[in-house]
Amino acid sequence: MQFHNPEVLYALFLLVIPVIVHLFQLRKFQRENFTNVKFLKKLSRQTRKSSRLKKWLVLATRLLLLSCIIFAFSRPFFPGEMEVTGEVDTLIYLDNSYSMQAEGQRGKLLERSVQELLESLPNDRSFFLMTNDEIYPEITKADLQNISYSANNVDFRTVLLRAENYFTRKSTSNKKLLLISDFQQELPDPEDILDLDVSIYSLPLKPENFSNVSLDSVYFSSAQATSGNISVHLSFMGNSPGNVPVSFFQKKN
Question: What is the pTM of this model?
Answer without folding.
Answer: 0.53
